[in-house]
Amino acid sequence: MSKGEILAGYLAPHPPHLVYGENPPQNEPRSEGGWEQLRWAYERARKTLDDLKPDVLLVHSPHWITQVGHHFLGVPHLSGKSVDPIFPNLFRYQFELDVDVELAEACCEEAKGEGLVAKMMRNPKFRVDYGTITTLHMMRPQWDIPVVGISANNSPYYLQMEEGLEEMDRLGKATRRAIEGTGRRAVLLASNTLCHYHFSAEPDIPEDMSREHPQNYEGYKWDMRIIEMLRRGETDEVFRVLPRFIEESFAEIKSGAFTWMFAAMGYPRMPGELHGYGTVIGTGNAVMEWNLANHSGPIEVRDRPAPA
Amino acid sequence: MPIVSAFLVPGSPLPMLKPDNPPWRELVAAYDEAGELLAASAPDVIAIYSTQWMAVLDELWQTRAHVVGEHVDENWHEYGVMPFDMHIDTALTAACIERTNEFGIRSRGVDYDQFPVDSGTITATHFLNPGGRLPLVIAANNLYHDGAVTEQLAATVRQQADALGRRVALVGVGGLSGTIFRDDIDPNEDHLASPADDEENRRMLDLIAAGDAAAVRAALPAYARDAKADMGFKHMSWLLGGLGDGYESAQILGYGPAWGAGSAVVAFTP
Q1: Contact A139, A57 (CB under 8 A)
Q2: Are residues A181 and A106 in contact, defined by beta-carbon separation less than 8 angstroms?
Q3: Mind listing the pLDDT tens digit for each residue in A51-79?
Q4: Confidence (pTM)
Q5: Taking a C-beta distance cutoff of 8 angstroms, is the pair A243, A196 a contact?
Q6: Hey, is A104 helix, strand or coil?
Q7: Which residues of A242-279 are buried (b: 16+ CB within 10 A; e: fewer)?
Q8: Contacts of residue A83 in chain B, CB cutoff 8 Å?
Q9: Is the CB of B53 less than 8 angstroms away from the CB of A85?
Q10: Cα(A21)–Cα(A32) distance, integer angstroms
């Protein structure tokens, strides 16, 4: 078996509005569109993902919250109807997915080896969270690539943020070793929004884009600053300012997916490709790609840059 | 007075999923006793607020007439499936939704097949409403609402129940101290995460049992902070708001751990 590799990582946020705006057959509610810039960003990301032809997609979602340990989907086939508890008017999605259980088990074992509490989710009646489903749908609506779903342990919120993100760093390193050990060609999906300040009421027509804009100007400026750094490959600087970014923009990346993904990729100092940015009920969302497979030259695997 | 009984109960699904585990038996027995007291108070409807049904936009209320299904807890999936079968008092719920605008809270009904009902609501109804015989009003915990708004929501239920002639059992679902064990423990060995949490919980329970609603209300913010109480102990605010000017007495039916967190079953006499 050849050594596995991470082909790419994507920042792939999960507002259910994007699925609602697209009107796929799996989703019950119908819309007149909306959030086109972000949906077109995902169209670009879908094309590059298609070119990579990965064996598996790994997604870390902040809407599968676990208190005791980091959990991994561990049932070969899961299906059902996912209704968003916050936006049930927009997202009632019939899902069906295959899980790469062998890789999930390897991730779980490697995570334990890192000293983390890690568990397999073996209950066949488990309902997959809408964050996982939205990210997977937006990246690969064909649902023809097996997945590994990873929960967001609430450590960044429950403990000090730095302790929690340090756990996510270890989870990322464990994920990398599991991918390499199982010979998989893998793509990572960090299901996170940037600035998470949002409006407290929804327009009568949710897809009325005349009502959509950043909720918070300071948060918007933070998003642009972080995206600029990521586009320039200034990974060290991003992780240096990350705690401030999270605190001052209420960023959802606090939940860990972003750190997990970068840890697994080895914190590459390579420019990220911005496919697009847009707001959803005022929150900041960027679809970005770090294509390791197409990068010319070796990529040094590094430890997490120290926060300020 | 439309409130005929009121209960503070834990939202952890562990007593429902593993009722025979020794450290959780006291909570199970207390939950069973609370169910008997609730039935004896002969309510027409149970009004539930669970910290685990989290809302962000608007105040959400369950409006589907018949809510039925199976749930698997996000964290405790290894312990099995939680079936539920609930009927909703749609008339009383609609009246509540209509009235919250008066104090600036926009409310919305939730009437969707397979809407994810939370573990706390399912656990509470499993013990307090076996067979789903009584209809329910179920209100969400909007994360941006404070204790005062939560009191207003429950007061709205009381006022609208009064107008419709309903007798209400009021239920606040949530935990006490919020610190849990973050590692796998032997469930047989479960206990409060720290003596300090235990002390904080016991002090609050003593205060509740003393029957002085104003003192409970005054002590609530400090308790919520020091004990890291579940969601700021807003489920207690729900009860205080619904009970109005106060209550006659309260009895602690059971107290114990749920993976280190504090849990209690308390029965209030309005």
Answers
A1: yes
A2: yes
A3: 999 999 999 999 999 999 999 999 999 99
A4: 0.95
A5: no
A6: helix
A7: beebbeebbbbbbbbbbbbbbbbbbbbebbbbbbbbbb
A8: 112-116
A9: yes
A10: 7
